[in-house]
Structure formats: C-alpha cells, structure tokens
Amino acid sequence: MAVTLTPTAAKHVAAHLVKRGKGVGLRLGVRTTGCSGLAYKLEYADEARPEDVTFVSHGVTVVVDPKSLPYIDGTELDFAREGLNEGFRFRNPNVKDECGCGESFNI
Question: Dihedrals φ, ψ of 81, to 5°?
Fold first, then answer.
C-alpha cells in the first residue's frame, strides 16, 4: 500500500514548498492524543531520515516514520476549500472510529 495525495493536495503542498524555499516534501504521521486515541501530525519535511518511508504522489514526496505507517497505510490526503474554511482531509481506510470533534481517531 502507500500514502497518496490527490492532485489538489499535491498542488497545494508543492506551492507551499516553493513559498518556503526549502523542503523535500510533506511529513505525515500520528501521535497519541485526543478522545479517540490518535491524531494526525502534518508538517513540511526539510529532510527524510534514514528510517523514514517515502512515497511520491503527483510529483510530491510524502515522508512517513515507520511507527506511524501501520496506522496510515492506504491513506489518501486531500485538500479542500469550503466557504471560508480550507484544510486537509484524510481518507484513511484503517479508521474504525472518530471522535465527535473530528480531531482524533482509533484503529
């Protein structure tokens, strides 16, 4: 499996990497938190560590640490604008339940 970006998400990430003037891609992981147990961790990656797993989707590199990969393997990341709100949307086939606020999930 893999972690992928939609074309819209890839375009958004690529534009922000250019604006930053540095970075190899997007780092995606999970952390323990919230009412359901896990939350996504998303940041720009300035480098890939030797233990990281990398995927290329629509020309953008996605960097994942090996501990997070079992929780997000198969995830598609989208970027959406709805009215005045915009942000990333996670389509994770591993999620069994999400909290009411949408901030955390469990597997």
Answer: -115, 125
